[in-house]
Design brief:
- By secondary structure, the chain is mainly α.
- 96% of the residues lie in helices and 0% in strands.
- It has a domain of 31 residues.
- It contains 1 helix and no strands.
- The protein starts with a helix and ends with a helix.
Length: 48
């Protein structure tokens, strides 16, 4: 019973961590994509 209570209490915390991790990864990916787009634009503008 005690172990079950502890695991039940840990689950929401775990899902919260996963959500934060996903948000961080998504933000990093968005930032990388943004930089790549700017660099591509810059190369296209300077090349053309």
């Amino acid at each position: 019973m005690t172990k079950k209570k502890i695991s039940d209490r840990d689950q929401p915390r775990k899902s919260g961590q996963v959500t934060t991790l996903v948000a961080i990864v998504a933000g990093a990916l968005a930032g990388i994509l943004f930089v790549v787009m700017i660099v591509t634009l810059f190369i296209t503008l300077s090349g053309g």
